[in-house]
Amino acid sequence: MTNKLKHILIIEDDPDIRELVGINVRDLGFELDSAADGLTGLDKVMKNSYRLVILDLMLPGLDGMEICKKMRANEDRTPILMLTARSQELDRVLGLELGADDYLTKPFSIRELLARIKALIRRSKFNNQIANEEKVEEQPLSFGELKIDPSKRKVTLKGKKIHVTAKELELLQLLANNPGHTFTRQELLDLVWGYQFEGYEHTVNSHINRLRTKIEDDPSQPVYLKTVWGIGYRFVEPEELST
Length: 243
Known about the structure:
Structural class: alpha/beta
CATH architecture of the largest domain: 3-Layer(aba) Sandwich
Largest sheet: 5 strands, parallel
Strand order of the largest sheet: 2-1-3-4-5
Number of domains: 2
């Protein structure tokens, strides 16, 4: 398989859309590969590794749903942004259930398209890190008196089990797997909640606050979940705990 991680593939039968997307994708620093029908597009996907696939739902030869389904059945984790002229809820839900990462209904603005592309690429960057380090990350994490066991979805503090929601655990695990790394609120939204929550930074704040009440002795003076003022949040580094 050819490595084309500097390329984005668009599978779209409308030449005007292919050309417009190509111009703007290059402004982001990527090259564009394209296919005008489903069979050609699937062949390109199977032979190359892309950073992102922009996939039209209605295609000649093979539709976008089938391409998405075959990619995920082949354990291809390439982010998929699905395009469609349809607006029915059923189509959107079916596409996402088959493994698409996001969904955009035509007509769309280039600004919105580029925002979604950037969000998916940011998200895939960290997801690929997690996938590549999966064996390490499945091991229990220990930070002082705080223990996180991802495989058992269990958090304990001073030996006592702490009840956390699924999103709280996902957020805590992401931060704890990257101690010292500062995430912006928008990055955390993209990685934990997805693009559709853009503009809801307070969602991150409220989850951080709830986690602090559960794992910090004094939430106003957090030991584990640090605020980086003007930027976002980070998890404490082991060296900081030792001091």
